[in-house]
Amino acid sequence: MKANATSQEQILAACRALTEREGIGAISMRAVAGECGIALGTLYHYYVDKEALLLAAVEDIWRDILPEDDADHSPYFAEYAEMLYRRIRQGISRYPGFLTAHSAVFAGADRQQGREAMHSCFGSIRRGLAASIAADSAITPGVLNDGYTAQQMADFVLDNMLMLLMKGAPDCGFLIRTVTLALHGKAE
User: Fold this and answer.
1) Range name among 28-37, 72-81, 84-93, 113-122 with the lowest pLDDT average
2) Cβ distance 73 to 128 under 8 Å?
3) Is it the case that residue 126 has pLDDT exceeding 60?
4) What gap in Å lies between CA 51 and CA 57, rounded to an integer?
5) What's the CA gap between 87 and 36, in Å, rounded?
6) Is 148 in a helix, a strand, or coil?
């Protein structure tokens, strides 16, 4: 074992490496400590238990899949949504079983902690989708209102994208054409 302590970044890098090789189920306190070459007690200094480590690992993997500062905010919703889908699909391909397993991590966590982690993971994606909808000048005037908002549409799109990704769909074209029809009054 290493005599000196490691950093949270190194621990999370070890979690990513384990998840890439063996899936998120491979993450345990002992496996991560071994991957880092540190004593188990050192790992507990950073994460009080496996649940805290898993939540941090899932959030970190989502940041790796879709870095916030790397987002391409096209002024057209359809372009932005399709780019987002491709990026997420490409990112999750590096982490076998991650997309289906990550929800189990959130569900197994303390209810409030799980909600906060989900919000952290998907909040920026939802905001990006809502911003692209709000900025899309091709949307028919008056379509969006208090009962049919850009945020509601963004939530709908992301939820359906995640479902398509879990099913292994190669693209989200039908979803985007359907939403475009609702927003623009025509399919593109």
Assistant:
1) 113-122
2) yes
3) yes
4) 10
5) 29
6) strand
**pLDDT, position 63:** 87
Q: Identify the bridge partners of residue 68 per DSSP, sorted by sequence position.
A: none
DSSP string computed for 15-44: HHHHHHHH-GGG--HHHHHHHHT--HHHHH
Dihedral sign for Cα 16, 156, 130, 137, please. Answer: positive
Question: What is the rounded CA–CA span in Å between residue 167 and residue 165?
Answer: 5
Contact by Cβ (8 Å): 15, 47? no
- Which structure tokens are listed for 69? 């500062």
Which residues on neighbouring strands pair with residue 148, listed in sequence order? 145
Q: From 61, 80, 184, select the one nearest 125 (Cα to Cα).
A: 80
> Quick check: pTM over 0.70?
yes
Residues whose CB is less than 8 angstroms from the CB of residue 47 and which lie 6 or more positions away in sequence, other chains included = 11, 29, 53, 56
Cα distance between residue 120 and residue 174, in whole Å: 28
Distance (Å, rounded) from C-alpha 5 to C-alpha 129? Answer: 40
CA 3-5-7 angle, 5° bins: 150
Backbone torsions φ then ψ of 123, nearest 5 degrees: -60, -45
Q: Are 15 and 33 in contact (CB under 8 A)?
A: no
